[in-house]
Amino acid sequence: MPRARHPAPLIPNLDRRSYGSLRNGAKDTLVNRFLRWTFSRPDHTGTARQLRTGQWLPIQPHYWRGEHPLGEGGMGIVHLWCCIDDNNRIRDRVIVKQVHPGVKTWERKDAWRNGEIGGEPRESVLGNEVYDNLESSAPGHGKFVTQCLGYSGVQDPNPEQIAATGNIVYRNIAAYKLYFEYCEFGDLRDAIIRQKEAREPFHEGFIWMTFEALAECAVAMDQSNIVHSDITTSNILLSKSDPERFKIWPVPKLADFGSSRIIDGAARRRLTGNDEAMHPYFTPPELTRDSANFSWAVPGLQVTNKTNVWSIGLIICCLMRMEPELPETVRTENQPPRPVDRQLRFDIFNQREIRKLQHSSADYSVELRKLVRACLKYDPTQRPSPSQLLKAVRRLMHDHLGGFDSYGRVTRIPWNKKERLRGNLKDIWAVGTGTNIRLRP
């Protein structure tokens, strides 16, 4: 259950960290302002599709002792806006992400295109580069990442030096907005929770489909030498199915390139990135931090194109075990951790690799289990490269799809087909549907 909202005045010189590290009261004020923002289309769209003109309104936020947007994270707030016609029917929709990166990240040249601070944010640059690489390799395969449709609202923190003391004070909260396509069926984390509650393992065809999509993304990232750094079950979104292939299941999309970066010499040697927003339950060995010492957990490792491969292996393992995050990676107070000898610990020699790969009620193929185990090797040199992984997935998957790669192309899929994902996957904000959205007071 979300916490109650208690807005407090913003103090730019105090509230200069990233969104996830702000005071709760400051977060609540930023949320209230965001949900009442007068929508404007992005100033910079590149080659992405143009949003429709017209009246744009935010969907009604969830309410529990204060308003709550669709999502909040380490860097900002996410909510859905819809364009409404005169008959209150939805004409267009877009996800807007209000990013508050904090002063430290704002002032980093590698957070912006060509090092131009206040220009195009890195999340837009790298995410769309991966999209373009996917489209170049196979038209239509950009569907496996969320496309950034533009950015705007860049607000400089406006530092000012006080002459008497020499101290720097900040006049604004650093911010910008990113616009993304809307994925109507939520994320993989919620899908896993629904499947777990139903006590029904995912069909192996769905797992191979997701494996192939993420392997394609790994190859596309490798083409531009990108490490994602934050591949989690919450950052894989689910969108409308492809009527030509795997029609029975929604398309998985890799999202949130906010922590991504180019693997240059500094990133490879881990001289940068320790302060990036990475979910601790999903970090590979070479990106796992020692929170006590604010350093890397294991010295001597390097970031490579195989770092993304480990992360993908972990996502597939979560699907096979029906766990939104693996219990052995949880070490926080709100979820009691396992004893140390049952944790995944890269700093302890015999605890560096995941032992259990599937749920006790599942019986997945040997080929799937072997490939996932190869991805999850502690030593990066023992993992497949992105191209090797994609070739292996495509070579091994065909005997385990149950015919669902082509099922339903010319016929309607029964609503109660047991291989479907659990839950009511309904697009409640579909273009063309009526709505009663109103401006919030």
TrEMBL record:
<dbReference type="InterPro" id="IPR000719">
    <property type="entry name" value="Prot_kinase_dom"/>
</dbReference>
<dbReference type="InterPro" id="IPR053083">
    <property type="entry name" value="TF_kinase-domain_protein"/>
</dbReference>
<dbReference type="Pfam" id="PF00069">
    <property type="entry name" value="Pkinase"/>
</dbReference>
<comment type="function">
    <text>Component of the EKC/KEOPS complex that is required for the formation of a threonylcarbamoyl group on adenosine at position 37 (t(6)A37) in tRNAs that read codons beginning with adenine. The complex is probably involved in the transfer of the threonylcarbamoyl moiety of threonylcarbamoyl-AMP (TC-AMP) to the N6 group of A37. BUD32 has ATPase activity in the context of the EKC/KEOPS complex and likely plays a supporting role to the catalytic subunit KAE1. The EKC/KEOPS complex also promotes both telomere uncapping and telomere elongation.</text>
</comment>
<dbReference type="InterPro" id="IPR008266">
    <property type="entry name" value="Tyr_kinase_AS"/>
</dbReference>
<feature type="domain" description="Protein kinase">
    <location>
        <begin position="64"/>
        <end position="401"/>
    </location>
</feature>
<dbReference type="InterPro" id="IPR011009">
    <property type="entry name" value="Kinase-like_dom_sf"/>
</dbReference>
<protein>
    <recommendedName>
        <fullName>EKC/KEOPS complex subunit BUD32</fullName>
        <ecNumber>2.7.11.1</ecNumber>
    </recommendedName>
</protein>
<comment type="subunit">
    <text>Component of the EKC/KEOPS complex composed of at least BUD32, CGI121, GON7, KAE1 and PCC1; the whole complex dimerizes.</text>
</comment>
